Amino acid sequence: MDEARLEAAKNAHTDAATSLDTWRSNVRSASWQHLVEVRQTYRTADYASRSGWTFFNIKGNHYRLAVVISYQAQTVAIVDLYTHEEYDRLSEKR
Description:
By secondary structure, the protein is of the alpha+beta class. 43% of the residues lie in helices and 28% in strands. The mean pLDDT is 92.
């Protein structure tokens, strides 16, 4: 997991820091093999097939965390943390 990107997201959105720490802890202990297993932990996780990104609701759905999950390598690469306004604009472009 890209700790620097996660820390940057926490610094940019300090109100989400605790939720991001909880997410990180859950991801570190997970061994997901596919999206169905992700949704057992995070039932609202969404997958965007065009980008290959998985989105997690953070801080009670105030933010959307975009990541790339490699199930085979058991890695999670953080793309960015978006406010819902930013996410909506991003979704319109796709």
